[in-house]
Amino acid sequence: MADIDSPAGHGDEVGAAAEARWTLVVAIVTLFLVGMMGYMSLHWAAMPPVRTETVDPGTLHIAGEFIETNLGTFAEADGSATVRVLANQYSFTPQCIVVPADMPVLFRGTAADVVHGFSISASNVNLMLVPGFVTKLRTRFERTGEYLMPCHEFCGNGHAAMWAHVKVIDRESFMRQSRDAAGKGVSCVQ
Asked: Residue 139 is inside which H or E element, if any?
C-alpha cells in the first residue's frame, strides 16, 4: 500500500518506461522512412521510369512525330483523339486546337527550345513541356466551347503573348471534319 501512495516512486518509473518505448518506436519509423527515401532516390537516379519518352529537339522539324504535318488533332481507330502540340518561343503549333467533346483525348507535346507549359481553362489539362521529352496526358472534355491555353512557364521576353486556343466541338462534327481532312488533322479553319 505504501508503494502506491509514494509521490516519487513507482509512477515515475512507469512514465519513463512508456516514454522510452515511444521514443524507440518513433526512432524506428524515422529510420525506416529515411532509408526508404534513400533507396528510392538511388533507384530512380540509376533507372529512370520506363514511361519516359525522349525526342531530339534538334530534329523535331525535320523528322518524326512532331513534324508540322503531324501536329494537331487526329481521330484514332479506337474511337479516341490524339493531339500533338509543339511549343517554341513564343508560340504553340498549332495555334488553334480542335478537340471532340465526350471522347477520350490524348495530348502529346514537347518543346523545341526551353521549358514551356500550358493549361486549358475549365479543364484538368495542365502540362509542362520539356525539350527532349514527350509529355502525355489523357483527358475528356464534357462541354463544347472555346477555351484559352496560355503558356504558364516563363520562357522569355515574349512569354506574356504565348497563347493558343482550344475549340471543343461535338463528336459528330469532329468525326466529319476528321474524314474531310483526309489524314491532315482537324484544325480550326477547314
From this structure: strand 133-140
- What pTM, to 2 d.p., does this model score? 0.72
pLDDT digits (tens, 9 = 90+) for 23-33: 999 999 999 99
Instruction: Return the number of other C-beta atoms located less than 10 Å from residue 78's C-beta.
Output: 7
112, three cell numbers: 523545341
What would the grid cell of residue 53 be? 519518352
Answer yes or no: are the C-beta atoms of 74 and 51 closer than 8 Å: no
Strand ranges, E, within 5-155: 53-54, 72-75, 81-88, 91-93, 96-100, 104-111, 116-119, 126-129, 133-140, 145-150
End-to-end CA, the chain: 96
Q: Which of 179, 96, 168, 116 is nearest to 139 (CA)?
A: 168
Q: What is the rounded CA–CA span in Å between residue 120 and residue 165?
A: 9
Cβ–Cβ < 8 Å for 84, 65: yes
Sign of the alpha-carbon torsion through 59, 65, 66, 69: positive
